[in-house]
């Protein structure tokens, strides 16, 4: 993990047209502005975790897999399938 110090008004540029700007800092936290191509999905970490848990719960209870494009890439945890010989892994960029 790269850790950078930034002050209000300063930014960080990430390859792919992503710009993160420190909008405000106070005792309650930091407000960030994110500029990115509209084709990229941006989720807060806790929302991404919630989506992954709900997707896993739904697929396990239904005994099915999630169709491509319906679950956020890299956020879906492994799902159990009827055939225990089929290995399923979750992709991760972390």
Describe this structure in words.
The protein is an alpha+beta fold and 94 residues long. The chain folds into two domains: 7-39, no CATH class; 43-94, no CATH class. Helices cover 19% and strands 21% of the residues. The protein contains one helix and three strands. It has one helix at residues 45-62, and strands spanning 11-14, 18-26, 29-35. A hairpin with a 2-residue loop joins strand 2 and strand 3.
Summarize this, please?
This protein has 94 residues and is of the alpha+beta class.
Reconstruct the topology from this structure:
Blueprint: E1 11-14, E2 18-26, E3 29-35, H1 45-62
Antiparallel strand pairs: 1-2, 2-3
Which terms summarize this structure?
94 residues; alpha+beta; 2 domains; three-stranded antiparallel beta sheet
Number of strands: 3
Mean pLDDT: 77
The order of strands across the largest sheet is: 1-2-3
Q: Helix and strand succession? A: EEEH
The fraction of residues assigned to DSSP E strands is 15-25%
From the spread of the alpha carbons, the general shape counts as elongated
């Amino acid at each position: 993990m790269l850790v950078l110090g930034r002050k209000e008004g300063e930014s960080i540029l990430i390859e792919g047209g992503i710009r993160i700007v420190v909008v405000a800092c106070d005792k309650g936290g930091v407000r960030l502005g994110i500029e990115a191509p509209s084709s990229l999905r941006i989720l807060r970490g806790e929302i991404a975790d919630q989506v992954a848990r709900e997707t896993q719960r739904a697929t396990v209870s239904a005994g099915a897999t999630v169709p491509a494009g319906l679950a956020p890439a890299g956020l879906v945890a492994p799902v159990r399938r009827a055939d225990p010989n089929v290995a399923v892994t979750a992709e991760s960029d972390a």
